[in-house]
Amino acid sequence: xxxxxxxxxxxxxxxxxxxxxxxxxxxxxxxxxxxxxxxxxxxxxxxxxxxxxxxxxxxxxxxxxxxxxxxxxxxxxxxxxxxxxxxxxxxxxxxxxxxxxxxxxxxxxxxxxxxxxxxxxxxxxxxxxxxxxxxxxxxxxxx
Length: 143
Known about the structure:
The protein is mainly α.
């Protein structure tokens, strides 16, 4: 809570979610997961979490400096690199979004190709059927 207050005083958005609040949120969103936890006698496995939003490099640097003082209680300190900047992280997020968009476009292209193939096969089958009956009629006329 002290860290949250310090970050807020620096102009950052910091929201604390306790273990109990996290499990209540999970219960509302995915009750079947909570049921599975109860079935296996697993107590609340969710950690208390502090969500921090930064809007500039200076805020990000302040955040990195402040949380180093709390490294004993922060579980993902190894994910914080001293050389990373806010722009580096933004670039990573943009690359991920672009990759997801490329996959969506690729799946649309594959679905379109599949539909074109199915429609082409149906047209070919109908054409063949009509042509076959037309030939039968021509043979009957000759007879």
